[in-house]
Amino acid sequence: MSTLRVPGFLSQATLRRFSVVEYERLVAAGVFDEDDPFELLDGYLVRKMPKNPPHDSCLQLMDEGVRSLLPSGWCVRNQSTIRLPQSRPEPDLCLARGNARSYLTQHPGPEDIGLLIEVADSSLALDRTDKARLYAEAGIDEYWIVNLVDRQIEIYSHPTAEGYVQMVVFSESQYVPLVLDDVQVGTIPVAEVLP
């Protein structure tokens, strides 16, 4: 199994990996506060990048854009936890089957998720590599990166155990098709969701 890259002064031998079950026990026991700035990625606690105004504005614009297109039976989860085999990431947006009450007792898993979206500026490298790999390994059908650095949206699809097979870039002048369960439910104008 591949793992997240760690700084050279650390080695796999000095790091402690947690299973999702162990992590959930620690959260339930109150060891971690739900607002602590980290997430479990591939068994490691990884500090989340701080958010700046362009990130937060883009997140709000994207949330409004996808929410307005969602068909019945789908909900938007904003910076909420999802449950993968070795990870508990908190993507910026998750389009999941169900409604606001569907996840009162559990976080959505891969079978519940139609689309994950990350807004990226300082986190761009992590989102393109490690998060893309984790999402593909878990079988998430489609993953978007709203790339604030290059002012584009990158669509990753066709997941395999090694990563996503296809990546398509949509520029500011284009519209991204929003597809859920192989049905296009609308389009998102890239320029309207970029800050």
Describe the structure.
- The protein has 195 residues and is of the alpha+beta class.
- Helix content is 22%, strand content 32%.
- The chain contains four helices and ten strands, in the order H-E-E-H-E-E-E-H-E-E-E-E-E-H.
- The protein has helices at 20-28, 53-67, 124-137, 190-193, and strands spanning 38-41, 44-47, 74-78, 93-97, 113-120, 142-147, 152-160, 163-171, 175-180, 183-189.
- It has a six-stranded mixed sheet. A two-stranded antiparallel ribbon has the order 1-2. A two-stranded antiparallel sheet has the order 9-10.
- A hairpin with a 2-residue loop joins strand 9 (175-180) and strand 10 (183-189).
- The longest helix has 15 residues, at 53-67.
- It is globular and about 45 Å long.
- 31% of the residues are buried.
Brief synopsis:
The protein has 195 residues and is of the alpha+beta class. It has helices at 20-28, 53-67, 124-137, 190-193, and strands at residues 38-41, 44-47, 74-78, 93-97, 113-120, 142-147, 152-160, 163-171, 175-180, 183-189. The protein has a six-stranded mixed sheet with strand order 3-4-5-6-7-8. Strands 1-2 form a two-stranded antiparallel ribbon.
Kindly state the number of beta strands: 10
Shape verdict: globular
Q: If you average the pLDDT, what whole number results?
A: 90
- Main pleated-sheet profile: 6 strands, mixed
Oligomer: single chain
Structural class: alpha+beta
Strand content: 25-35%
Helical coverage, percent range: 10-25%
Point out poorly predicted stretches.
Answer: none
Q: In DSSP terms, counting alpha (H) and pi (I) runs of 4 or more, how many helices?
A: 4
Q: Secondary-structure element sequence?
A: HEEHEEEHEEEEEH
Give the strand order, joined by hyphens, for the main sheet. Answer: 3-4-5-6-7-8
Calculate the terminal CA-CA distance, rounded to whole Å: 37 Å
State Rg.
Answer: 16 Å
